[in-house]
Amino acid sequence: MDPRRLVLVRTGGPSGAGSGYLVGPQLVLTALHVVLQGRRWAARVSARVGHPRYGDLVHRRAQVCWPDVDHGIPADDALDVALLWLDEPVPSPGGPVRWGRLGGVTPVPFEGAGFPAFAADDGSEAQVEYLRGDLPVVSTGSSGWVLDCPVWPAPRGDGTRPWAGASGSAIFCHGRLVGVAVEDDRAMGWRRLHAVPVHEALSLPGFADLVDRHGHPGTTTATEELTAGSGAAAGGAEAMWPVEVGPVPPLASAFQPRRLLREQVDGARVGGGSVVLTQVLSGGGGVGKTQLAAAYAVDAMKQGVDLVVWATATESQQVITQYAQAAARLRLPGVSGQDPEADARTLLEWLATTRQRWLVVLDDIAHPTALNRWWPVSRTGTGWVLATTRLKDARLTGNGRTRVDIDVYTPDEATAYLRARLTDDDTDHLLDGHVPSLVEALGRLPLALSHAAAYMINEELTCGAYLKLLTNRRTRLEQLLPETADTEGYGRQITTTLLLTLDAVRTADPTGLALLVLRLSAHLDPSGHPHALWATPPLLDYLSAHRTPQTAGTATSPQTTANEAHTALRLLHRYALLTCDTRDEPRAVRIHALTARAVRENIPHPDLPLLAKAAADALLHAWPVVDQPHTDLATALRANSEALAEHALDHLWHPEGHPVLFRAGESLLDAGLIDASTAYWENMTADSERLLGDDHPNTHTTRANLATSHWQAGRTSAAITIEERVLADRERLLGDHHPETLTARANLAASYWQAARTDEAIEIYEQVVADRERLLGDQHYETLIARGNLAACYWQAGRNDEAIEIHEQVLADRERLLGDHHPETLTARANVATSYWQAGRTDEAIEIQEQVLADRERLLGDHHPETLTARANLASSYRQAGRNDEAINLLEQVVADRQRLLGDYHPNTLTARIALAAWRGHTRGNGESGEQPSEEPE
Question: What is the pTM (predicted TM-score) of this model?
Answer without folding.
Answer: 0.51
